[in-house]
Design a protein that fits this description.
Largest sheet: 6 strands, mixed
CATH class of the largest domain: Alpha Beta
Strand order of the largest sheet: 16-15-14-27-28-31
CATH architecture of the largest domain: 4-Layer Sandwich
Helix content: 10-25%
Radius of gyration: 22 Å
CATH superfamily of the largest domain: Metallo-dependent phosphatases
Shape: globular
Number of domains: 2
Length: 469
């Protein structure tokens, strides 16, 4: 009989000003004869582990046992608890706004993922599951009260087109940006992470998953999400949007159901659709407030030709949501940051993708609502455009990179661009927003802004600053 090893994971799957959704799971590895060689077990082979399973992570995974989640204040006193015997996730409520906590998960009377963990890294002359060397630091800070203005500045991060995986040594782009992201979370107290889609591309099935497995099984998510961001997602909530590689628009299989499961989307937005703060099926639209003056709006710009030939934001079902999420701004009284994030960019200079067709009406909605910044991905570069007073940012280089020079700067109204692996670090301070595009860490381990160029190829050094009126 083969030997199996399970590596446990923790996930701060959702967060509000008064509650936290904490999840746990594991990935299984077959231990080969050397006892140092580990191979990730496919979902189809989980029937051989003990006890047999069908799924390992996500909202639908079979429970690992009777579980208790304890949340402690910084003095170590348990202030709130949650219990479950039917799932591997649990909401813990009764927390205070804008307050730092630690937590632990106890399953079958043992602390889950306690002690040093094994991580996928270089072992000898190849990549593999390394020795136990690093523990989790399970802490988080609740969001501010969404009914009150946020007096202090806050920082969030944005990653896009990142889910290519870190299995092989040559897959360094996503790994290096993940390391920089973790550094930013530590240094800048990053409170949340947005994605601009293409959260997962493939396993080893071929280019971008066009020829087989694409991300519709849990085992596809180990190298592409859970391992690269393991020491971030246990502390900071991630808010996803759908990209073309997450749906069947580009790939041979639709990963949308698995994405919703592994990001615990339904558990987060339960009841939100009835309240007008979400609109789903078809597509994924939701919004949430960080404080009374900052609201994020997830928009599904993907297209399913076999079902609905236009993009999902044109679907009649979502019009009421869009009207509520993007109300007409009153002149001189726009004090709310409404920040849409999506995958397909309204403005993009190429080289592979350009201004997305069919977005003229949604652009008009942005303008009438007083939107000042729109976040998107799709093109594997950083691009900064300015159109009718709105800053459009393309951030699609957290795992993929396209180095060719864009070819339609004028049509995209491009201000600056860069062909570098990166993520965005965004700080909102009252009516001022500062955006930084951060690349891989420097040789001495410091965060570095990527160099940007103007369309005429001159260096751009000024900061990207967005202001509300």
């Amino acid at each position: 009989m083969p030997d199996y090893y399970s590596e446990p994971f923790l996930n701060l799957a959702g967060l509000t000003h008064k509650s936290a959704l904490i999840a746990w799971g594991a990935f299984y590895f077959r231990v080969r004869d050397s006892q140092t060689d580990f191979k990730l077990v496919d979902d189809d082979d989980l029937k051989h582990v003990h006890p047999p399973r069908h799924q390992t992570v996500g909202a639908r995974s079979e429970p690992y046992g009777k579980a208790k989640v304890e949340v402690m204040n910084m003095a170590g006193t348990v202030v709130a608890s949650g219990f479950t015997e039917t799932a591997n996730h649990c909401w813990v409520s009764g927390l205070e706004p804008n307050t730092e906590y630690t937590y632990r998960v106890i399953v079958n009377d043992e602390e889950w993922a306690n002690g040093n963990r094994r991580n996928w890294e270089r072992v000898g002359d190849k990549m593999g599951l390394g020795p136990k060397s690093r523990p989790y630091q399970n802490r988080f800070r609740t969001h501010p009260d969404p009914t009150k203005p946020s007096a202090a500045p806050f920082t969030f991060a944005v990653i896009g087109d990142f889910g290519v995986g870190i299995k092989k040594d040559k897959d360094r782009g996503q790994r290096q940006i993940a390391e920089a992201l973790e550094k930013a979370v530590d240094e800048f107290d990053v409170r949340l992470i947005l994605t601009t889609g293409d959260n997962i591309y493939r396993t080893d099935a071929g280019l971008f998953g066009l020829c087989g497995n694409t991300g519709d099984d849990d085992d596809d998510w180990y190298f592409t999400y859970y391992q690269p961001y393991r020491y971030v997602i246990n502390r900071v909530p991630v808010y996803p949007t759908i990209g073309n590689h997450d749906a069947s628009e580009t790939e041979s299989r639709d990963d949308r159901e698995q994405l919703i499961d592994n990001f615990y989307v339904n558990e987060r937005i339960a009841g939100e659709e009835a309240a007008g703060r979400a609109s789903i099926d078809p597509g994924l639209f939701y919004r949430f407030r960080y404080s009374s003056d900052v609201e994020f709006i997830c928009m599904d710009t993907s297209k399913e030709p076999a079902v609905f030939k236009k993009r999902f934001f044109d679907h009649p079902k979502h019009q009421e949501f869009l009207n509520s999420a993007l109300p007409a701004a009153t002149a001189g009284q726009n004090s709310t940051w409404r920040i849409p994030f999506c995958h397909h960019p309204p403005f993009c200079a190429g080289p592979a993708h350009h201004n997305t067709e069919g977005m003229s009406e949604i652009i008009k909605r942005f303008e009438k609502a007083g939107v000042k910044v729109v976040l998107s991905g799709h093109e594997h570069q950083f691009q900064h455009s300015l159109a009718n007073g709105i800053v459009y940012l393309v951030t699609g280089g957290a795992g993929q990179l396209r180095t060719k020079t864009p070819d339609k700067f004028a049509k995209a109204r491009t201000v600056s661009w860069a062909a570098s692996y990166h993520f965005l670090l965004v700080t909102v301070d009252g009516k001022r927003m500062l955006v930084r595009a951060i690349g891989q860490l420097s040789n001495d381990g410091k965060l570095v802004d990527i160099p940007r160029k103007a369309p005429n190829n001159t260096a751009v050094t000024q900061e990207i600053i967005v202001n509300l009126p």
